[in-house]
Amino acid sequence: MRSGYFRILPALLTALCGALLSSPAPAADPQRVVSLGGPITEIVYALGAGDRLVGADASSIYPAAAEKLPKVGYYRGFAVEGVIGLQPQLVLASDQAGPPAAMAQLQKLGIPVVVLSAEPTLEGLEQRLEGVAKALGLGNAGHEQVARIRAEVSRLTQTRSKQSVLLLSAHSGKLQAAGEGTAADALLRLTGARNLFADKGYKPLSAEAAAALQPEVIVTTTLSVEANGGIKGFLAQPGIAVTPAARNGRLVVMDDLLLLGFGPRLPEALRELQAGLAARP
């Protein structure tokens, strides 16, 4: 296993907090675990260790059991008091969890913290799977998941799409597009389809810009559709309504964590996206 598979708090955290923070070593077989990041929580369940979770952040919405866990806020701004109150033996955190001062406080209190890369690549997913398995003392469970995912993705990517696609979210009434470096873009690239949004990361998208891109297909999340009153309301939004995708009913709606998580359900996400891109109204 490469040394980068997991690390105890990134150097960036030390720099921002202005002090060298040393995390105590996790217990060999931790039974009280808090997860900060929906994809990390999903990995714990995929490895068969969901019964060890005593809490998670608000983005942990899959599987159904995760929604019943005590929540400590959103992982990018979690409540330290909420984590402490759950008396964890280990905190598993995305490297996007924070703020840094909150992460540092956990360490000062002697709570072991393992930070895992959120990179939306197959290599990054392997690091998360094997890092979580190692932290939980699960032996080869991570390797087995990695082998399964690699084999399924290799088979699925034999079929390629050539369609032009716009990846959108609209939870708060404002359009955001997903560009290079996002999990949604990484998933789309596996299909062979072209992402029309050329910028990096998630960025606001004006109605004029959406209309000018003229996507053949729009891909979005379940929560985005629900926030706009359903598919009809989503497609009627200014800028979207005049696109070929809206005129032809070419909208692919996916579970939020499935589209945005790049987690252990990656083959399922890829199959669902491929089917949506291939479908004709």
Automatic annotation (TrEMBL):
Q: Which domain of life is it from?
A: Bacteria
Q: Which InterPro entries match?
A: ABC_Transporter_SBP (IPR050902), ABC_transptr_periplasmic_BD (IPR002491)
Annotated signal peptide: 1-27
Tell me one Pfam family matched here.
Peripla_BP_2
Q: Does the keyword Signal apply?
A: yes
Instruction: Cite the entry's keywords alphabetically.
Output: Signal
- Domain Fe/B12 periplasmic-binding, residue spans: 32-281
For this entry, the protein name equals Hemin ABC transporter substrate-binding protein
Q: Which organism is it from?
A: Candidatus Dactylopiibacterium carminicum
Q: What is the lineage of its organism?
A: Bacteria, Pseudomonadati, Pseudomonadota, Betaproteobacteria, Rhodocyclales
